[in-house]
Every structure is written in structure tokens, then in C-alpha cells.
Amino acid sequence: MPVTDITTDPENLTMTLVADFAAPADRLWRAFTEPEQLERFWGPPGWPSTFTEFDFTVGGRARYHMTSPQGEKSRGSWEFLKIEPEATFEVLDSFVDEDGSPTEGFPPMRMVFTFTSTAGGSRMVNTSHFVSVEALEQSVAMGAVEGSRMAMDQLDAVLQDLREYAQGKGTRTELLDDQHVRITRLIEGPRDLVWRAHHEPELLQRWLLGPDGWQMVECEVGDTYRYVWQQGDDESTRFGFEGETVLSEPTRRAVTTEKMIGMEGPGTLNDLQLYEENGATLLTLLIEYPSRELRDMILATGMTEGMEASYARLEATVIAA
């Protein structure tokens, strides 16, 4: 994990994050100063950012919003106070409303980003300056420490060439905490086709099958969905999942609920995000489980291996066609 230290200092009213990366400093600088790259990591998993304005000049402003899986938006604004190319920049960071006006009760903070070369690559230091101890404590209480760590931990995928980062690694499963699992898989194909493959029944039934020998015998999609599989002609093996669409941002993001048909109790929340680079698509699936116990039970079924079989089939039978 790139974050090596996060320190809060009530006496000096600061919070400082230090992170080290294998990439050179100029590459790290571009990740923080180009909005299309910032959108990939500025926000913890499940709260990706969208930058609607980015005037990277002293006195210029950037505006963005982070969107939760349920569609809730948290809006922010940067005013650029100082820029020293490839070395440092400083912003006044504010919570804002839909019109861009500062949100009452949330004082702005001054953030300083510095970038230096190291023997192994580069280091980023982000120091946030608060107006009072109360403002610092408010930020910490809102999850700033852990949220910042999780956001920066997404940067490795941004700094590397997408194929270099993911090619040959297959489907990867990461345990983020007791309730969240992140699945990643590189798909050799354009994002719009990967999106269609997740939303059109005739395509879904060609790849979303798990291990060989299974077939999807029911496939209903829309605001609600229902998938049912069986092994060969044996109807006694039938099982399925159903759910509803919570958020849809074609062709970038889709959030759905998921529950095994006939099972009592809460299900999962599945946050699918797609990012394309040079004709390849990085598929990220963030799964929120209602408990650690259910998470472990589902992972123990061989979920990752089944997903890899399906994603490999997606490339071979859908994208290649």
C-alpha cells in the first residue's frame, strides 16, 4: 500500500499524509493535475469523483462531486493558490452546494501537495491546514483519515499503463474491510461493449456462466433483474440471483442490489465501474456485504475462480466477436 503515514497535529492544526510510489515524480504530478486521472482515485472506493470544472491556474477553480452507490453526492471546490510545476501546488478546499456556494458549518481548509523524487520512484506529501481544532476533529470524525488512505491506495492502477498493471493477472480479489471486497479484471475490449455485455440478455447468456457445463436458463434485465443457472439438463441444480438497479451512469457505472433467489435476509450491493484506456477496459466491482460472515461464506464457494471463468469467456466469445 502506498500510504506510509497519516498524522494529525492538533497543536499546529494539520493533518499530513505521506505516500510513496514506484512511478517517477513527473508521472505522479500528472495524476494529480489532470482531471480525467484524478477522477480515478480522488474519493474512496464507492465514492468516485466527477470533475465538472478544472482551471489549473493560480486563481482558477476546480469543481467536483463524489457519488455514493445510492446516488448521494458530496460536492467540493478547489481554488488554486499556488502552483510550482512538477513540485507543489496549494488549494483552498471547500465543501459546496449544487450552485458552488460554500456549505455552512464546514469551514474551508488549505491543502498543500508536494512531489519529490526518491530512490524507488516518488513521494507525495499532502498537508491539510485547518482553521480550528474543532474543524480538524470534524474532518477526522467524518472519516478523513481512512478515506484518504483508501483513496490513495487506488493510485497504483492509475500510475501504470493499464495493460502493464493488470495484464495476465486475471481476476483479483481484495478484502478492503469486513464488509467490502474489490474485484478487478482487465478486459481486452472497449468500454461500451463491456457495458453492453453486462446489460443485454443475448450477450449475458453467452458469458455469465461460471465454470464450464453451466447455462443461464433465465435472464431478465432492466430496473430489476433475475438470472437463473443450471448445470447441463439437470433442473435440480438450478439457482439464481435477483435484484434492482440503484444507480446507472452508462457506460461508466452501474450499482445494483443482489440476493440469492429464495434466501432470507439482506443481500449485497454491487458497484460496477468501467475505465477504458487504449482499447482495454479495467472492470472494477466493489461488493458490499451485510456482514463479514456472509462475505467469507461467499468467497469460500470459489467465487473468484467462477468469475475468472466468466470474464475469460467474455473476452473470448463476446469481445472477440
From TrEMBL:
- Source organism superkingdom: Bacteria
InterPro entries given in the database record: ASHA1/2-like_C, START-like_dom_sf
- Gene3D superfamilies, per database record: 3.30.530.20
Q: Which residues form the Activator of Hsp90 ATPase homologue 1/2-like C-terminal domain?
A: 23-159, 190-318
The UniProt entry, under CDD domains, shows: SRPBCC_CalC_Aha1-like
Protein family (similarity comment):
Belongs to the AHA1 family.
Q: What is this protein called?
A: Uncharacterized protein YndB with AHSA1/START domain
What is the protein's species of origin? Microbacterium invictum
